[in-house]
Backbone:
């Protein structure tokens, strides 16, 4: 496998993110290649290159947090007890509190793409930045409620609900229709979970979302939420620590 060309194909949209992530997880040569870029920056002392990124109507210069890979002790995440990025592995695969690197979710795909791009950009500034994953993430923020933003629930929405409403629809109508379908699909008997960590609404044995039936008993920092699998009647208890 030509490691660099594989990375370039992914960054330029010639390879989809799920396929690339499978290769990344299976073949350590990709991670070693990206780590070599960081190691070279550390040893050479060369200043980081910034690139232009557009968020909405605003364009700003960024290094994509690569500076924290070079100096992990400066990471603002330390103030909040988050894991520090001391290697490419932690930078691209560590699932931070309230965040995920699961590329089958819009947030995870956007985060993972940005991470790979920001590292490779330090080697080759000619590589174009695609906004495909960022656009999908921004749209997901518009339609997916926070209590479903992550885990199997978000993947279910991405695969089974959003595609029902084509991008040719007017955005306001599309957003309204998707939100209504989400409320119809993710049933609740008593409010919605306020997760301690990332959202973790479970699916039943039939692959459909379970019904939320309320909070379970808390013990210290342990929080519980109860769901019912409508296909079996089984009660599913989700546990998270603060």
Residues:
């Amino acid at each position: 496998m030509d490691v660099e060309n594989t990375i370039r194909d992914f960054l330029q949209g010639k390879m989809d993110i799920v396929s690339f992530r499978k290769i990344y997880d299976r073949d350590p040569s990709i991670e070693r290649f990206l780590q070599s870029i960081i190691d070279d920056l550390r040893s050479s002392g060369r200043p980081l290159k910034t690139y232009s990124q557009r968020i909405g109507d605003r364009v700003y210069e960024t290094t994509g947090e690569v500076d924290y890979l070079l100096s992990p002790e400066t990471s603002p995440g330390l103030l909040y007890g988050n894991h520090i990025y001391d290697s490419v592995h932690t930078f691209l695969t560590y699932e931070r509190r309230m965040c995920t690197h699961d590329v089958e979710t819009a947030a995870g795909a956007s985060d993972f793409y940005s991470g790979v791009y920001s590292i490779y950009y330090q080697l080759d500034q000619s590589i174009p930045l695609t906004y495909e994953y960022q656009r999908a993430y921004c749209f997901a923020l518009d339609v997916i409620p926070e209590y479903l933003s992550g885990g199997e629930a978000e993947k279910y929405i991405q695969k089974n609900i959003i595609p029902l409403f084509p991008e040719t629809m007017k955005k306001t109508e599309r957003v309204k229709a998707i939100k209504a379908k989400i409320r119809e699909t993710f049933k609740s008997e008593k409010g919605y979970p306020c997760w301690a960590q990332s959202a973790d609404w479970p699916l039943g044995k039939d692959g459909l979302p379970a019904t939320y039936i309320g909070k379970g008993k808390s013990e210290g920092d342990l929080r519980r939420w109860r769901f019912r699998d409508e296909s079996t009647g089984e009660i599913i208890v989700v546990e998270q620590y603060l």
